[in-house]
Write a structure and sequence with these properties.
Order of helices and strands of chain A: EEEHEEHEHHHEHEHEE
Oligomer: heterodimer
Number of domains of chain B: 2
CATH topology of chain A: Rossmann fold
Largest sheet of chain A: 6 strands, mixed
Radius of gyration of chain B: 34 Å
Number of strands of chain A: 10
CATH class of chain A: Alpha Beta
Strand content of chain A: 25-35%
CATH architecture of chain A: 3-Layer(aba) Sandwich
Distance between the termini of chain A: 31 Å
Strand order of the largest sheet of chain A: 6-7-8-3-9-10
Number of helices of chain B: 13
Shape of chain A: globular
Chain lengths: 235, 420
Amino acid sequence: MIRLEKINKTYFGAQPLHVLKGIDLQVNEGEMVSIMGASGSGKSTMLNILGILDNYDSGNYYLNGKLVKDLSENEAADVRNRTIGFIFQSFNLIPFKTAMENVALPLYYQNVNRKKRNQIAMEYLERFGLKEWADHYPNELSGGQKQRVSMARALVTQPKVILADEPTGALDSKTSAEVMQILREVHETGITMVIVTHERGIALRTDKIIHLKDGIIENIEINNPDSIDFSKEIK
Amino acid sequence: MFDFDGIHEIWQTITRNKTRSLLTAFGVFWGIFLLVVLSSTGNGFENGLMQQVEGVTPNTAFFFTGETSEPYKGYQKGRSWSMQMADLEAIKETFPCVKAISPEASVWSSEDKNVIYGSRGGSFSVKGVLPEYNTIEKSKILKGRFINDTDISANRKVCLLGKKVYETMFERGEDPLGKMVKVNGIYFQVVGVIRSYTDNVNINGSIDESVILPYTTMQQVYALGDKIRFFAIVADDETPITDIEEDLKQLIKQRHDIAPTDEDAINSFNVSEIFKAFKGLFFGIHILIWIVGLGTLMSGIIGVSNIMLVTVKERTREIGVRRAIGAKPKDIIGQVLSESLLLTTLAGLVGLCIGVGIMAIVGSITANMPSDNMMFQEPYMSFKAAVAATVIVIISGLLAGVLPALRAIQIKAIDAIREE
């Protein structure tokens, strides 16, 4: 599903910063992986490249079998809209839109008519137990509810890949566990998932943990989340 | 992009951010509102003033004698002189384009009550004119008739009463025709009652407060001799009065042995120049109004642009998120431009409607006021100007959105995520 071949990325500032130094990575369809690393290890940059939010200098990035390189803004927007679902640490819900409208927004950019997209959005909200909150604005929702809305928004276009940037970073441990539970359930429907995190407790719930250090993959840890009893884990 | 769904999306963004939208829109609203009010007020004054001068035929000039300022043909300078009836005849012969000509002489009485009928009396001015005078200073004959040729040739002791004179001297509804009125000690028979066209334009005092006598009778009764110091002419429509004004003066100077270069011996002024001055004045006022109005509008539009620029900055996250979940650059440009367009157009139309509404109220109030002295009539904006203002608002709404839109597409999805 995702294949990175010798990806290099340098930020040219006052001091050129070589962030990614030849990353090779394969994420298969239906896999749930996490990327771990200290700050500055390049994990956010990698996620940005995976999400086509940023470009890379050299190498090849194949998403769903297609080479993603030098896409125009429009092509990138289209791929993001149809293939990728984003979950952000700070939720990034639009404050003046209700939960339902936030979830429906990606469909607006697919030119789905309003009645249809609100209907689809409602289905997803219902799936995440937020039906009663559909008409509420983000500031009327708890952190966990907000993250569930943003997950519904990520999934509403039925993407192939979910990219999550510290999805539990702004949540307490109980809510984090709930969110991770939901992500696993989503993953079990066959969606490929890449989660960036610096919390080992989160990473342990994924199939593969990719350890990044100074722009290179240090090691890949194969993990079996089903063998771990998370009820005892203390973050 | 301009489907109903898109408009709904933009409308939602505008209405869910009310304070921001209201602040943004206010400048444009105010600009258009001021433009409408100023332009309507200007029209109101113009209509009012133009109605005031309607009483005088535009192609009119007045001539009056002064003292000579140059010695000529043996005469010293400083000579006082006057014209005669024969001069008027000569003018008519030399200038066939002169439609009407009439001298005018006025007498004011120092007596308390110079006009007396029965037990009533009042103090009014007395004017002597020729029949043609009625086409120079327009008036309405309420009862009877104006001075006629027979009155002139026979020096008849007849008079017309101005409206106010009639109201003072007679009971309401009383028929004054044929009655004898004593004017400065001499009895005249009333042949008519007249009223001036408007109150504000009059020649040597309002007709309403005058007693009008035949010119010849006036000369005889007041022992003026065959002297004319003031006369008025109207030229036909094909001849602008300014074309003959100077030639006419030369003719009179020649007939009275006055130096052709003498500027002070005979004076004149013509109404067409006053009309032209009015027209020019209002043209200038209209230009000023549009400059002020458009200037206000422009600052409103710059305000819109400015606030939207700030707004775009403030909305970095929103726009970034929209980009991340699939908005294309054209979606973002469309959104910002449409927001600007919709806001300015709405604000402009509201300003237009409120402005027109207020001026309609003002107009109906002034229309119901006694109109004798109204310097302010029908303060309405022309339809053309309203359409122009609307078009300007729409175009400027688009222009105001350009800079913010360009700024908005600079925002990359990644910025939304970075901004913590």
